[in-house]
């Protein structure tokens, strides 16, 4: 069943300066949070690691494959994500948005989401609360841990809650047709998905991973949007079902029927 929520991921490259270790982009955080404070529909937030979690996970050589990583590294990566999360939460508290921070540890068991806990996140939005979670290092099994990205969390939460929309706020205007021309693909529909996910499609680095997760979400039936997080007014437009710059990957059975 579709839950009456919108799932939004604040990309690490929007909320932090990716090239500067442990540095938030406070202006970008405050602008996007201020914009979201005017939104009336229920929201669940996810955020990435940017120059916090990624910085330490590279230092301690920790990845998305479950392994026995350094205990110190596990502690440090987790702590850095709590720190980043707290900065966002404080920005939300100032605007009386009632954030409720939830580490992924609390709704994951091994590789699987704990369904009841995920549904509780949706229930909390009915109490005027905005649950907020983040990419993190999580316990998998037999003393093995792995980095669970905010992008994967988007897919996981979407598959359970089937939100009205899933939105990725990123540091570019949308998905590029090709990296040279920087032309934005406005709309990707089911029939073009195969070609789009094909090996020839040139999407670099982090974006490729995001698009992979976005395709998974859209194939499960939800519309997925990519929007520039530095231009929060566009995010607002998406929430209002109005046209704006960005990319939408239409869900297999479109949730809104809108462009
Ligand atoms: C990364 O999450 C989390 C950690 C490294 C602990 P993401 O991979 O979703 O972060 P961004 O948005 O790409 O920075």
Describe the structure.
With 259 residues, the protein is an alpha/beta fold. The chain has one domain (3-256): 3-Layer(aba) Sandwich (Carbamate kinase). It is built from nine helices and 14 strands. The strands form four sheets. It has an eight-stranded mixed beta sheet with strand order 3-6-2-1-9-13-14-12, with helices on both faces. Strands 4-5 form a two-stranded antiparallel ribbon. A hairpin with a 2-residue loop joins β7 and β8 (144-148). The radius of gyration is 17 Å and the shape is globular. The relative contact order is 0.16. The site of 3-methylbut-3-enyl trihydrogen diphosphate has 18 residues, from α3, α4, β7 and α6.
Brief account:
With 259 residues, the chain is α/β, with parallel strands linked by helices. Strand 4 and strand 5 form a beta hairpin.
